[in-house]
Structures are given as C-alpha cells and as structure tokens.
Design brief:
single chain, about 130 residues, alpha/beta, five-stranded parallel β-sheet, 5 helices, about 20% strand, globular
Length: about 130
Amino acid sequence: MLDDGAVSVALLIVDDNARFRKRARRRLEADGYTVVAEAADGASALEAARLHGPEVVLLDVGLPDMSGLTVAERLTSEPDAPAVVLTSTHDASDFGDGVARCGASGFVPKASLSGEAIAELLRSSPSVDPPQAR
C-alpha cells in the first residue's frame, strides 16, 4: 500500500525476457506501481495497451517482432496515450535520436530500473501522477 493515500499508477511491462519482466514487476510493485499486464513482443504490447489502458508502459527497445521505438510511436500517437518509458541493456545513446523522436517520456537503463527512476521521468508529464517515493 502506498503512503499518504497516493493512488497507484497502472503499468504495462513489455520485454521479451520473462526473467526481466518478473524482476521488474516485483521491483515496481514494491515501489507502488500496479502492473496490469505484461507482453513479450510489440504486437502483444499494442493489444495489451488497448485492453488494459495502462497509464505507463515500460517498453524494451529490442523486441523480437518490431522495434520498441516503433511500438512507442504507435502507442503515443493514440488518443489518451500512455506515458512510455523505454528501457534496454544498451545505453540510450546507442539509439541515436530515436528515443527523442518516438514520443517516449524518456529512457531508463535496465540496470537502473526503479520506481523512482520512472517517477522522475514522469514528473514532467501532466497526464501521469507517479506514486509517492517511499
């Protein structure tokens, strides 16, 4: 339960690595997020976002069926688009200006993933109220 009566943020995790999804879910739920769904590829991510309407999508850049940058562009072009936070084992600079152009709120390296890292990116987004830091 979150401190100060804060409302949890609904989050979708998209990554082709099941172990990473499990670790991310545990970490982010402990940090106050509610993981509403998981997806292992871009097509499943688009469908899960449509079905579950998450406020935030944690999206791996490297997916087996399409680039996470393409998925981010599609998600952020929809009405009532979720905030998209890209992640990868690679550095953001490895993707050139693709991270900035795809409509994502920002990038968090997988090794630095935490609820606070996501919340910091989202603080500038008026449509998402990140959970209180613990």
